[in-house]
């Protein structure tokens, strides 16, 4: 391994507080959206968002992720139909009552119109191992790495001025089949991306107080 000099520009102490509070304010305005506009978005924007996610740190730099951008209407329809089949089963039979109680405030149900309406779906896959010349190479801390990358993806979507929903149709196996992914890739999350529908509403949720999530020692 060769090493190179770190490219780093030091921020003055006096600017640290301003910069961190500006970013905090920006991120506080992010919300999960369940009603999308079908207004087109330039593909370059979505590619930049994915490239931002791919800057994430990962265990031993294995980068165990794959991002599938779906814009094809027919494939989006197939994904919606398969997701709604699983989600209806979840809401009507599979989910324990306690889970349904926790979801009640969101007024969600088995219908997932946004999967067809939003101009793009980004489907995040985790790579269980990589394969080179029929040899399997291990990946490490896969869920942590892909989770961090997805966090950056969500922040990049918000920064661009677009909205998304972290969607987890359960189970998600159908995504690998519809998108024709190899067996070493497993679906991680499904994120519709676009502009919000006009007059989109969000549940009035509360975030925990800082004193309940932050401990100084
Ligand atoms: C891992 C994960 C899975 C989620 N799955 C769903 C989902 O399948 N459907 C949905 O409507 N919201 C889903 N959400 C969105 C959460 O309900 C939402 O993030 C939470 O209520 C906080 O709201 P906010 O994102 O607007 O701050 C999920 C969020 C996360 C982080």
- What value does the Rg take, in angstroms? 19 Å
Strand-and-helix sequence, N→C?
Answer: HHEHHHEEEHEHEH
How much beta, percentage-wise? 15-25%
Average pLDDT metric? 97
Shape: globular
Question: So how many helices?
Answer: 8
User: Which structural class do you get from the secondary structure elements?
Assistant: alpha+beta
Strand tally is 6
Distance between the termini: 38 Å
Characterize the biggest β-sheet: 4 strands, antiparallel
Small-molecule binders here are: flavin mononucleotide
Helix content: 40-55%
The neighbouring-strand order within the major sheet is: 1-2-6-5
Low-confidence stretches: none
Write out key terms for the chains shown.
binds flavin mononucleotide, single chain, 217 residues, 6 strands
Description of the molecule:
By secondary structure, the protein is α+β, with helices and mostly antiparallel strands. It has eight helices and six strands, in the order ααβαααβββαβαβα. Strands 1-2-6-5 form a four-stranded antiparallel sheet. Strands 3-4 form a two-stranded antiparallel ribbon. β3 and β4 (135-138) form a beta hairpin. α2 packs antiparallel against α6 (142-160). The longest helix has 22 residues, at 73-94. It is globular. The two termini are 38 Å apart. The relative contact order is 0.21. The model has no long low-confidence stretch (mean pLDDT 97). The structure holds flavin mononucleotide (FMN). Flavin mononucleotide binds next to loops.
Describe the structure in brief:
Helix content is 41%, strand content 16%. The chain is α+β, with helices and mostly antiparallel strands and 217 residues long.
């Amino acid at each position: 391994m060769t090493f190179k000099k770190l490219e780093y520009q030091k921020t003055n102490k006096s600017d640290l507080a301003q910069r961190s509070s500006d970013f905090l304010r920006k991120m506080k305005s992010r919300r999960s959206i369940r009603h999308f506009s079908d207004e087109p978005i330039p593909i370059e924007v979505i590619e930049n968002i994915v490239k931002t996610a791919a800057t994430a740190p990962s265990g031993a730099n294995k980068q165990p992720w794959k991002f599938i951008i779906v814009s094809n209407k027919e494939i989006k329809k197939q994904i919606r139909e398969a997701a709604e089949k699983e989600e209806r089963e979840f809401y009507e039979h599979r989910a324990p009552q306690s889970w349904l109680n926790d979801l009640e405030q969101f007024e969600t149900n088995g219908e997932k119109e946004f999967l067809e309406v939003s101009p793009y779906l980004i489907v995040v896959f985790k790579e269980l191992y990589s394969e080179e010349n029929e040899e399997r190479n291990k990946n490490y801390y896969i869920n942590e790495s892909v989770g961090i990358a997805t966090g950056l993806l969500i922040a990049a979507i918000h920064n661009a001025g677009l909205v998304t929903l972290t969607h987890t149709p359960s189970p998600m196996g159908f995504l690998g089949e519809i998108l024709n992914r190899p067996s070493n890739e497993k679906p991680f999350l499904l994120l519709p991306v676009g502009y919000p529908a006009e007059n989109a509403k969000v549940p009035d949720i509360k975030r925990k107080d800082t004193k309940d999530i932050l401990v100084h020692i």
